[in-house]
Amino acid sequence: MTSATTSRARGNALPFVRDPLTHVELTHIDKRVENWVRFGHEAQEQILDRRRRIFSFCPGSIFAFVRWVANDFGTIASRIDILRTVAPGEPCQTVPFVQPGGEILLRVAGWPKVEQVLRHIDAVEEAGIDACAVSPDHWRHVGNRLNAGEPSRPYTMARHRAWLRRREIRP
Known about the structure:
By secondary structure, the chain is an alpha+beta fold. The chain has helices at about 5-10, 110-125, 135-145, 155-170, and strands at about 20-30, 35-40, 45, 50-55, 60-70, 75-85, 95, 100-110. It has a five-stranded antiparallel beta barrel.
């Protein structure tokens, strides 16, 4: 039985169509839980209540998702993921609070490393570059270098122009 047949069997008039958007659940509970998007161009925003909302991104979008959790004694966990959203049917990795998931370009945990990534993003934006337009390979480089305990190369306007030219030749 296909999805369309299953959908009709349940009484729906239209066949099941997979949602092409990637949905990210954001939460803010003062001094306890903070899930936020550091950069990204959302296609939609849905407010669920005072503490929760959902950002939705089109396929191929790149965004940074920060998660921080604390208890009475301080920070329990902090992490940042930079993800590229995928099209329906494209393989992806699962990430908490991200449906259906995405291609992980960078994943680091622990506040010192998260802070380094945030500073790196700030430097990219101070150079006049939209962090969403940075080469995916650069985000992989930053994550790999941080996880290896090594410094990463800065993302300069020259590197960005080279990436844009390379993308013109080979999309």
